[in-house]
Amino acid sequence: xxxxxxxxxxEHFFLxxxxxxxxxxxxxxxxxxTAAYGATLGALQAxxxxxxxxxxxxxxxxxxxxxxxxxxxxxLLTPYELIPSHRRDPNQLRDSECFALSRSxxxxxxxxxxxxxxxxxxxxxxxxxxxxxxxxxxxxxxxCLNAAIRPYLEQGLLTLIPWSTPIKILMxxxxxxxxxxxxxxxxxxxxxxxxxxxxIEATDLGDLLELGxxxxxxxxxxxxxxxxxxxxxxxxxxxxxxxxxxxxxxRSSQHTSPLSxxxxxxxxxxxxxxxxxxxxxxxxxxxxxxxxxYDPDGMFRYRRVYRSQDSxxxxxxxxxxxxxxTSPLGINGGPPxxxxxxxxxxxxxxxxxxxxxxxxRQEQVIRARxxxxxYIHYLQTHGHPELKPRGDLTWxxxxxxxxxxxxxxxxxxxxxxIRHEDVAAKFFPNQMRARTFTDSVGIGQYHYLDVHPxxxxxxxxxxxxxxxxxxxxxxxxxxxxxxxxxxxxAKSIGTTHITNAAYRMHxxxxxxxxxxxxxxxxxxxxxxxxQNITEQQTLRIQFQTHxxxxxxxxxxxxxxxxxxxxxxxxxxxxxxxxxPLQNLxxxxxxxxxxxxxxxxxxxLAQVLQWSLESDISNLASLEPIPSAARARLARENSLxxxxxxxxxxxxxxxxxxxxxxxxxxxxxxxxxxxxxxNKPITNRIAAQILWHLWTSIPHL
Length: 700
Fold this sequence. Notes:
It is a single chain. Helices cover about 30% and strands about 15% of the residues. A hairpin with a 2-residue loop joins strand 15 and strand 16. Helix 1 packs parallel to helix 4, helix 1 packs parallel to helix 10 and helix 14 runs parallel beside helix 18. About 50% of the residues are buried. The protein is α+β, with helices and mostly antiparallel strands. It starts with about 20 loop residues before the first strand and ends in a 6-residue tail after the last helix. It contains 18 helices and 23 strands.
């Protein structure tokens, strides 16, 4: 295995505060989640100083401490060559990571491929997992995460404090504002305080919300709380997603000593060996199909994270993550009985971690870890004595992850709540996108609402509302309703129990964190509050422009890369509605398609209106409209005198004459030269023209 290191920074990079020490920073990020990392990197890239306080030494959350470096990717991240030919969009970019992910997240994925070659070759999916399009070992993921952060540590821009959890919120009232957080070091037991201008809640369970008594919800809400039609009238806070202690094991070439069975094995309900399985049964149209443990479509390769050969076949030396929920259980070597209970892996559905006492939470964590230990023991003693726990890849002795894989947290009540009706495919018939929020600051996609229910009664059945379409992340879902100085992140944003099931996946949690980190840095840079950015349209668009300049997509287009020179123009003009989505049945922008006069005229009129409002907004209400504003108003009204066919393309030469007659700000000379050609104006050229005119408006 080619690994950069063990995934943990050198000791001198960590700060260990003394008892009662007080630190001051610009941005405080609390938690060890994937979003905490994304927020840290985003804020640092935007030029801010950051203090990250987390419970472990290793960064990265799901990818590392939680032991799941096989990314849960949606179908839009499927490598193009693996998409069935009849389902391919011929206009889609061949590299889906260039349109579905931010530039930073793609760089992270590229690093993992480079650091874990297969047979000395860099390939698309080093681990060859069949459920994930990219899988590597936890230590390789950690090293690649560290590589992007290291320069900021060396420059002194990042303060990194490990082993610590929040115990108290420092709150100022009227208006209610977070001023800082008090922490406890789990090793030294010292208490220390970090004061910050902006705090980001990026814990895996939403702990700051509970500590600060910040409005929040737990578990499955009621219909009246979220207005989701699928929900029952009563809330069920105990209905939460199961947790899982992942484990990393190798198929070794020889037998190993099995892990000892945990206390209570075959006695406690969560430790029953008769529930476990190593077979994967699926029902084909006319029969059951069984896949054995090492079958290419079996449970070992489900989350395989290392292989020595570029092959689907599982070989000795291959390594996987055990992270299995449920599947039908074969009966006496034969096919399953559909009415019988499902067979189980190491998901722990016997309790919940949110909305319970710290003691109860810790009890559930211990039981969940015991369940994974029991599952490994079962596999090793039921036909797989060669399974070898790889604690060197999990920073533990037994190959079980440092922390449980968390699927659901306490959720803050935000300015916007993302509802089932905003995401599920059934609410967008004949469309390719779910709701595109005007204040979008990120995109995500998972093909269904993936709920792993615990055993609490009352879980909603979504029926035909199970499938999800590509969705967006509204800025207002990161802002709590009544607390300033706080940004919601990770799984604590304004989702619901239902929609969290899609927003919780690795790529989306990164996007959530990244947007929040940039938001904090942007607010400080502009000298405004987070609330100002959501309330003032001009500031919001400036922030969206900032994000797109960082290669962060905010609208779904599968034919425009985050490295495209017109990426910001296309993304922001679409988000604002100036160049609205053309065809809701595709994810295409169609940059080379000719733009018709009606579409171009409407967009140009909106740009002129923005310009007029910009002039007037800076004046007292009793002052006369300035001559420049009157001229822009006249230009907008004069568009009606151009007698172009509304449904036909407008040529470059016509566009040049139009702009000249409207006496608009001059375009660059090189651009004017291209306009002289008698070719149609394409969507790309229209975006270039409109962006040039629009960004010349004061304050934009």
